[in-house]
Design goal:
By secondary structure, the protein is an all-beta fold. The protein folds into 2 domains: about 20-325, Glycosyl hydrolase domain, family 43 (Tachylectin-2, Chain A, 5 Propeller), CATH 2.115.10; about 335-480, Sandwich (Jelly Rolls), CATH 2.60.120. It has one helix at about 330-335; strands at about 20-30, 35-40, 50-60, 65-70, 75-85, 100-110, 115-130, 135-140, 150-160, 165-170, 175-180, 190-195, 205-215, 215-225, 235-245, 250, 265-270, 280-285, 300, 310-315, 320-325, 335-350, 355-365, 370-375, 385-390, 395, 415, 425-430, 435-440, 445-450, 460-480. Strands 22, 23, 24, 25, 26, 27, 28, 29, 30 and 31 form a 10-stranded antiparallel sheet that branches. The protein has a 5-stranded mixed sheet with strand order 4-3-2-1-19, with no helix packed on it. It has a 4-stranded antiparallel sheet with strand order 5-6-7-8, with no helix packed on it. The chain starts with 19 loop residues before the first strand and ends with a strand. The protein binds beta-D-fructofuranose (FRU).
Length: about 475
C-alpha cells in the first residue's frame, strides 16, 4: 500500500487526491472503456484556491489512478463544467475520434492586499483534448459565452439531436439558463428555468439527463443549492419533467425535493456517455463550503462519493429519484463477511469484529421507540444511524462522532422523512474512516456525512432503545483498500 494513503481519516475505498484540496467532480465521462473523473483541484495547497481540473481514471469506478492536472489554470481559475465527445467535429477543433471537449467556467478575479479573492467575471470557456482526455488545450477564442456576470457558472453540455445544449447556472437569481449552439463556440439563449424549489442559497452545478421508467421517458434536472435545515448547509435538489431541446418544464409535483439529506453530498453530476437508459451514475463532492476548509486533515482535503446509480421509482403514486451504490463496489472489495438472519436486540448487540472500512446491511420492522446501528464507536464517541418512530424519520447523528469542534456548524443531526408507508426498513450503510453513506429502503432516502472519529473507533453495534427489535438479514462486510 502506498504510504500516502495511510493518513488518519483517509477513506480507503472512496477517491481522494494524494495531496491537496479537492471539491466538485467535473467532466465525468466514459470514453473508450475508461471512466474519467476530473475535479476541482488546487495543485498548490490543501485549501480552496488556484482552481484547476485534477484528473483520475478507472476501469470499474472502484480502483482509481490519479493523473497530472488535466486543465491548468491560466490567469483565470478553471471552475466546474462538463465534457463531451465531439463525434462529428462540430467545433472544428477535434480532428480525430480522440477529441474530447471540456466546457468550464473561467473565473476572472483579482486579489486584494490581504490576498482575498475578488470576483471580476465568470464566463464559459472551451478546452479540447486530442489524446483521449489526458491533456487539454484552451481554445484561443475563449471565453465562448460571457454575459458580464460574477454569478454565471458550471456549464453542462450535451448534444440533443443536431444541436449542442448548454445549461449554465445564474447562481444568485436561482435560475438555470439554457443555450443552444451548432459549433460549441457560438451560443444563443433559448430559455430559463428557476425560482422554484429551494432558493435559499446560490444555485450551482446543474445537470440534465433523461431517465426511462417503463415506457415513459422523463427528464431530470439536478442542481446543488439549499438544504432542508437551511442555516448555511448545502444539499442537492432535483426536478422531474420534460425537455424539448430548448426548454425544461417540470411535472406538477411538490418541490423542493432533496437528493440526499446529509451535509456532505454536493455538486454531484452524472457520467456522460454511459449507455444505460433507466439509470445514471452520479458522483458528488463529500464536502460543504461552510466547514470543509476546517476539517482535520493536513496534506490533503476532500473526497468523492461512491458511484451512485440514480433511477426513477414510483412511490405513493409519485415519481421519485432513488439511489444505490453500484454493485461492483461490494463485488470487488468484500473481504470478511458476517451474516446473521435474525438478531433480536434489546439494548445493544456488538458485531463480533471491528472495522472502520466496511458495509453493513439489515432490515428492521419499525421499532416502537428508536433503533439502528452505531458505527465508528469507542467508549465515548459514535456516529448513530437509525429510525425514530415518534418522528417517523430516519436519522444520522454526528454530534458526538469524535472531533466535531473544528467548526461550530459541523456537529449536526440529519433527519429525513420516509416516503413509503412500508412497515419494514432496509438499511445499507457504507462506512469508510471519515465517510458515512446511508441508503434506506432501496435508496428512497439517502444521507451522506463526513465524520472524524478521535481514536481508532471501530466498534459496530446494533441498538434498540427501550424495546426489542428484530434485526433481519444482517450482513457486515469489511472492505479492502483501493490504494
Ligand atoms: C460548487 C462550486 C461551483 C464552482 C466551484 C468552484 O462547489 O462553488 O459553483 O464552479 O465550486 O470551485
Amino acid at each position: 500500500m502506498n504510504t500516502f494513503y495511510k493518513e488518519k481519516y483517509r477513506p480507503q475505498y472512496h477517491y481522494s487526491p494524494r495531496i491537496n484540496w479537492l471539491n466538485d467532480p467535473n467532466g465525468l465521462i466514459w470514453h473508450n472503456g475508461i471512466f474519467h473523473m476530473y475535479y476541482q483541484y488546487n495543485p498548490l495547497g490543501s485549501q480552496w484556491d488556484n482552481m484547476s481540473w485534477g484528473h483520475a481514471t478507472s476501469n470499474d469506478l472502484v480502483f482509481w489512478k490519479e493523473h497530472d492536472v488535466a486543465i491548468h489554470m491560466t490567469k483565470h481559475m478553471i471552475f466546474s463544467g462538463t465534457t463531451a465527445i465531439d463525434v462529428d467535429n462540430d467545433s472544428g477543433l477535434c480532428h480525430n475520434e480522440k477529441g474530447v471537449v471540456a466546457m468550464y467556467t473561467s473565473f476572472e478575479y483579482e486579489r486584494d492586499k490581504d490576498d482575498n479573492i475578488k470576483a471580476i467575471a465568470q464566463h464559459q470557456s472551451l478546452a479540447v483534448s486530442t489524446d483521449d482526455g489526458y491533456t487539454y488545450k484552451h481554445y484561443k477564442g475563449n471565453p465562448v459565452l460571457d454575459i458580464m456576470s460574477t454569478e454565471f457558472r458550471d456549464p453542462k453540455i450535451f448534444k440533443y439531436q443536431d444541436n449542442w445544449v448548454m445549461l449554465v447556472s445564474l447562481a444568485d437569481q436561482h435560475k438555470i439558463a439554457f443555450y443552444q449552439s451548432e459549433d460549441l463556440k457560438n451560443w444563443k439563449e433559448v430559455s430559463q428555468f428557476g425560482n422554484i424549489g429551494d432558493t435559499n442559497s446560490v444555485w450551482e452545478c446543474p445537470d440534465l439527463f433523461p431517465l426511462q421508467i417503463g415506457e415513459t421517458t422523463k427528464w431530470i434536472l439536478t442542481l446543488s443549492a439549499g438544504h432542508p435545515q437551511g442555516n448555511g448547509y448545502y444539499a442537492m435538489q432535483y426536478f422531474i419533467g420534460q425537455f424539448d431541446g430548448k426548454r425544461f418544464t417540470t411535472d406538477d409535483l411538490y418541490y423542493p425535493r432533496y437528493l440526499d439529506f446529509g451535509k456532505d453530498f454536493y455538486a454531484g453530476i452524472t457520467y456522460a456517455n454511459t449507455k444505460s437508459e433507466d439509470y445514471v451514475i452520479m458522483m458528488a463532492w463529500l464536502g460543504c463550503h461552510s466547514y470543509t476548509k476546517d476539517t482535520p486533515t493536513t496534506t490533503w482535503r476532500g473526497a468523492m462519493s461512491l458511484p451512485r446509480e440514480l433511477r426513477l421509482k414510483e412511490i405513493n403514486n409519485q415519481l421519485h429519484l432513488v439511489g444505490q451504490v453500484s454493485d461492483v463496489v461490494l463485488d470487488k472489495l468484500t473481504e470478511v463477511c458476517y451474516t446473521n438472519s435474525l438478531i433480536n436486540v434489546q439494548d445493544k448487540f456488538d458485531i463480533p469484529f471491528e472495522s472502520r472500512s466496511f458495509y453493513v446491511e439489515f432490515e428492521i420492522s419499525k421499532p416502537s421507540t428508536f433503533a439502528g446501528v452505531e458505527v465508528l464507536s469507542d467508549d465515548s464517541h459514535k456516529t448513530i444511524i437509525g429510525y425514530i418512530s415518534e418522528k417517523h424519520e430516519v436519522f444520522m447523528d454526528r454530534t458526538n462522532s469524535g472531533n466535531v469542534s473544528f467548526n461550530p456548524q459541523f456537529p449536526s443531526m440529519e433527519t429525513a422523512p420516509l416516503i413509503s408507508a412500508s412497515e419494514t426498513l432496509n438499511f445499507k450503510i457504507y462506512v469508510d474512516h471519515s465517510v458515512v453513506e446511508v441508503f434506506v429502503n432501496n435508496g428512497e432516502i439517502m444521507i451522506t456525512d463526513r465524520v472524524f472519529p478521535l481514536k481508532e473507533a471501530s466498534k459496530i453495534t446494533l441498538f434498540s432503545n427501550e424495546c426489542t427489535t428484530a434485526f433481519r438479514k444482517v450482513s457486515v462486510r469489511t472492505l479492502k483498500s483501493i490504494w
